[in-house]
Amino acid sequence: MQHASTVSAPADGRAGITADLVRRLIAAQFPQWAGLPVVPVPVDGHDNRTYRLGEDMTVRLPTAAGYAPAVRKESLWLPQLAPHLPVAVPPILATGEPGEGYPYPWSVRGWLAGETAHPSRIGDMTAFAVQVAEFLLALRRCDSTGGPVAGEHSFYRGASPRHYDEETRRCLAALEGHIDTDLAAEVWAAALAATWTGRPVWFHGDIAAGNLLVAGGGLAAVIDFGTSGVGDPACDLVIAWTMFEGASREAFRAAVGGDPGMWARARGWALWKAMLVLCSALDTDPVMAAEQRRVIAHVLSDHLATA
Question: How far out from the chain centre does Cα 178 lie?
């Protein structure tokens, strides 16, 4: 059972976070849990360090100032969203304050059973794709009144992908000769032209395999709402190309619905991220580079099919 984002990273030490720090924070602020074992989770994320606390809890600590606003956002909103969602989301048990030399707020959460989504753990990928779509639709139906409007706290997920225009154009220049940059530029232009005009709804912001927990072959929980907010839900459709293909992609698309503009923006989000990762991986990580090329190829092909 794991509670993690999509990036594997060392369990200790980032941003000065260690199991000993977690023990001291717990002892100082939540003495009722002092003495429980504190163990890093086997697969951790980049934005936060996560430790298992005893058998039934986790402690989650941001690794940098940019990720800290998510703590209070999740602590406030997850309890309000949870009753309206078809699968579990992280139960917030307590919110900690800076202390013991650690400068950010942090949280204690209930442990969720399941393993991160992988095809080997999923009984029927097409049925799983529909489950993910149903979760997203339920999230959109949640009352968005007073919710956190997309912006810096969500790393601009839920806003226009135009925020990343300069970065995307740098990637296009750097990837000349590695991908079809002419077609990629066309996909990006289509994403920017497809202006969102819908009403603001809840979005997750990082629907990816590492944030989906499976049990019994199906979707059991969705974690890591750090980039969530209220705005355009197109960013939540990126999984159509990163995890789904063929029948599962078509089932996801049909279940989610959405107009052509939403899917154009979704392709833009997927392309931006895949190109950004590919630029970093070109000379250092051939496996990651190959995966990002695969995603980009699917996005470009999908654009051609819908043009």
Answer: 27
Give me the sheet containing 48-53, strands edge to edge.
38-40, 48-53, 57-62, 106-110, 92-96
Q: Where in the chain does DSSP place strands (E)?
A: 38-40, 48-53, 57-62, 92-96, 106-110, 115-116, 201-203, 212-215, 218-222, 229-231
* Separation in Å, CA 88 to CA 105, 111, 304: 23, 11, 37
**Residue 57 gets which letter from DSSP?**
E
Burial (Cβ within 10 Å: 0-12, 13-18, ≥19) of residue 207: buried
What's the CA gap between 108 and 22, in Å, rounded? 11
Q: How far is CA 142 from the centre of its chain?
A: 19
Q: What domains lie within the chain, and their CATH numbers?
A: 14-111 (3.30.200.20), 116-306 (3.90.1200.10)
Place of tokens 């779509």: 133
Q: Name the 3-class secondary structure at 237.
A: helix
HSE-up of residue 105 (Cα within 13 Å, Cβ side):
13
The pTM (predicted TM-score) of the whole model is: 0.92
Q: SS3 for 162-182, per residue? A: HHHHHHHHHHHHHCECCECHH
**CB proximity list for 187: less than 8 A, separation 6 or greater:** 267, 268, 271, 299, 300, 303
- Per residue in 36-56, pLDDT (tens digit) is 999 998 877 778 999 999 999
Confidence check: pLDDT of 12 > 70:
no
What CA–CA distance (Å, rounded) separates 84 from 97? 29
